[in-house]
Give the backbone structure.
Amino acid sequence: MKKLTAVLLTLCMTATLTACGGAKGSSGADAGGIKTVTSGKLTVATSPDFAPYEFYAVDENGTPELAGFDIALAGYIADYLGLELEVVPMDFDGVLMELQTKSVDIGISGLSPDPKRESIMDFSDIYYEGGQSFVCKKDNADKFKSLEDTNNPDYEIGAQTGSIQVDLAETNSPNADIIQLTKVTDIVGEVISGKLDGAYIETPVAESYAKNYPDLYVALPVPYDAAEGYAIGVSKGNTELLNKINEAIAKVKSEGKMDEFVATANEQATGEIIEGLLDSDK
Ligand code: ARG
């Protein structure tokens, strides 16, 4: 794993996927009048620790590639806009930061349209639905029969830095020691190894990793009403881009393509967790 990590580091700090020829424009505006941070490109921030949304899939040759239905959706949108796709992998709190500073055009990263984020980004329409879960190690399944059981000062409970799961942890397990980690893959690893007693994770993600790691147990559903579903974060004030993205989302759904992207991502998300990809920035 370590050797692979080193290879991955050199390979994957910035992954560029070309979706199509890309219509070149001048001064950051493409033929359709859409402004992007780099002319002719759609620059997308994502946190690939989140199967089946975005993750690294390793092919037969051991080559890691960005995969997931968010990545497929990013490609579809770039194509729709006639722009070249540039996906920039980073930790999830980085995705929020890059959107806030308008260093990227969009963030596709299993983002919940949390009203608290509305001051730093615009949200597209919802492109996918999913719920929230509390996970633990299978051996500890008996300890967590209800959410009240998680609210114990003896427990260390994980949540990804910057995510709505931190709020869920603070709401449901205020007496526990809440440990924030930058990568969901590390959270999963620490739950399995017993370093964390449990964690709050998106249900589709928890189920995906539980399939590959039977020691991970999806123990409890967690209520969350604030921002159901997943949306694309769009650089604030770029209304033309936002409108076009909403058109593309309506199209990808009506064509049944989104369902295809999800099915493919679920098939691909059967491999080992690749962790430590961004270890150099820790
Ligand atoms: N849906 C949650 C949020 O918006 C978590 C998203 C984490 N995404 C990721 N790629 N790790 O806060």
